[in-house]
Structure formats: C-alpha cells, structure tokens
Amino acid sequence: MNLPAGLVLESGATLAPVQIAYHTFGTLNEARDNVVWVCHALTANADVLSWWNGLFGPGCYFDPADWLIVCANILGSCYGSTGPLTPVGDAAEPLYQQFPLITIRDLAAAHEALRLELDLTRIHTLIGGSLGGQQALEWAIQQPEVFTNLVVLATNAQHSPWGIAFNEAQRLAIFADATYHVGTPTGGQLGLKAARATALLSYRSYDAYGRTQAETDPDRFDDFRASSYQQHQGDKLVARFNAYSYVALSRTMDTHNLGRGRGSIAHALSQIKARTLVLSISSDVLFPPAEQQLLARHIPGATYAEMDSQFGHDGFLIETAQITQFLEQFYVPSLVH
C-alpha cells in the first residue's frame, strides 16, 4: 500500500511518501468477523507463517483455512515498508542514518491506515509479542472499538531503563563501526554483528545457554561453543538485515510509553475495551513478568498467565504449544483460569 502524502509523525515531521508492505493469508468470511492482525517484533517481517510457525499456519491454532490473517511490515524495517534504505526525494537517495525518529504510535498509525485501506471494520484478534506487543497495546488504546480480543506476549506498557540500556549498548557497537557513518547499504555490518551478539544475552537465559552451549571437552581452553554461537547468530542477522534499520527500530522501541500525554499508564490501559490475554515468560530478563502483571492489573478484565520456559524472551516465538493451550482456555470463557 502506498501513501503518497505520507504520514505526519508524532515528532511533527512528515515521512513521505510511505509504502507499507503486508501479507494476508486466508479469506474474509461472509460475516467479516474472522480477522487476526499480527504485529511483528524487531527484525521480523510480514510473512508471519515463516517466523511464528506452530501458532500460525495450516493445522495451527490460527489456520488460514479459518482466519483472514494480516501482518504488515513496520516502518523503518527493510522488508518492503519505507525504511532507512528506501530511496526518497527528488534525488531518490536513501536517508540512511538521517531516517527520522519513528515512534510506536507512528507504527500504530501506519497499521490503522492499512486497516482502513483494507476496509476491515472489526478485528477479531490483535496479537503481538515484544515490540509487536507494544504496537498492539498502543493501537488498542487508539482504536478501542475496533478490536474484540487482544493478546500480548512478553511486552510492556513503557520500555524500561534496562531495555533502553540494552538497546543503547547495541547502538554503540554499531556506531563504533566507521562504515556506518559513510551511509551505504552495507554500512555498519560488523557493528550490527556485535549488536546482535549483545541482544542475544537479553533474549535467552542462563539456563538456555547452559543447556545448549555447554562444553563437552573439559580440556578445551579456546573456541568455545558459546563463542561460536554468538558469532553465528551475528552473521545470520547481517545476512538478512541492515544496521540502519536496526538503529531506527531500537530507537522506536525506546519511545514506547503508553502514558505519554494520557495522564498515566494506568489511565491509558483503562481505555482498552478488547477482551485481553496477557502472557509472560518465567525466564524473560528483558521483559520480566512484573511488566506483564502491570498490564493485566490495569486493562479491564484482563486474563494473565505465565509460561514456564527456559528460553527467556525468545519463548514467545518458541513456546507455541504452551501459547496454544492458553489461547484455547482464553477463547472458551468457562475454561479461563
């Protein structure tokens, strides 16, 4: 979808033109009440069946045979929507590190523009984890009459000092790569690799590393499995993402504060009318359960549940069997605990 006039951002700047890439799976039913809208996390894309397999896809809880599933790539990303590498202006040059600050509210505004373009008057379920959960909460506050159900996982009402510090540490790694400041499509790749290695420490847990990266050779004193894992994961992200989008979207996450201009976080959350399920992960050190408990306390009638997982924050992508069980309980009120 194209918005030739662009979007007026929360900062007051205008991003124009704007392109929003999205995928749909399944078919809208005659009653037009079977829409599931997915808000994706930091480095994901609009193809939700590729990265949330086990929850979305044939035979999964959200099966395209039953639902119209919509997922839009967020602004600032590199998977089709307008971002730092998108050519703009008369000279058709990318903005690179000059890409404007995009807030969570701007992401929600882009989702809303797409919803109107698709003429979807009612969303059965709005779902997202991490940065996706931040978007979902913001959008549910902005448009309380649109959503019947809201499901948020491993997310929060305001990005924490801990989370911002992790993001800043990653950006410092990217800024330390001199190629980032030149402004080329491959700028900052070594910095991005280091940033990803840093991020993984917040996405997983002590137990997860101990279980998957422990050494089997007691005589080893170099080239540890955990070291190789960090290198490999950094290389994987560099192969599919770019440093400029990573910087832009980490800054977007830092802006998240549902209470900004609304009196308080509690008041903002009280505006949500959707029936809400809030899921946390026991081992999540980046978005600890206390943050989801706060959401559940202030969203009227919200259901709260905690997943027992050793995967840390990444559990919201991995623990699809547990998520499915909680969804089955949530959608049958008599079985909700």
TrEMBL record:
Q: Which GO terms describe its cellular component?
A: cytoplasm
Q: Which gene encodes it?
A: metX
Instruction: Please name the GO terms that the record assigns under molecular function.
Output: homoserine O-acetyltransferase activity
What is the native source organism of this protein?
Hymenobacter cellulosilyticus
Every copy of the AB hydrolase-1 domain together lies at 35-317
Q: How does it assemble?
A: Homodimer.
PANTHER family listed in its UniProt record: HOMOSERINE O-ACETYLTRANSFERASE (PTHR32268)
List where in the cell it is found: Cytoplasm
Residues engaged in binding substrate: 196, 314
UniProt cross-references to HAMAP family, sorted A to Z: MetX_acyltransf
What is the E.C. number?
2.3.1.31
Sorted keywords for this record are:
Acyltransferase, Amino-acid biosynthesis, Cytoplasm, Methionine biosynthesis, Transferase
What does the sequence similarity comment in the record state about its family? Belongs to the AB hydrolase superfamily. MetX family.
Q: Quote the catalytic activity from the record.
A: L-homoserine + acetyl-CoA = O-acetyl-L-homoserine + CoA
What the entry lists under InterPro entries is as follows: AB_hydrolase_1, AB_hydrolase_fold, HAT_MetX-like
The EC class name is transferase
Q: What is its main location?
A: cytoplasm
Name its GO BP terms in alphabetical order: homoserine metabolic process; methionine biosynthetic process
Top-down, what is the taxonomic lineage of the species of origin?
Bacteria, Pseudomonadati, Bacteroidota, Cytophagia, Cytophagales
Does the record's keyword annotation contain Transferase?
yes
Q: Where is the active site?
A: 130, 284, 313
Q: What's the protein here called?
A: Homoserine O-acetyltransferase
Which function does this protein serve? Answer: Transfers an acetyl group from acetyl-CoA to L-homoserine, forming acetyl-L-homoserine.
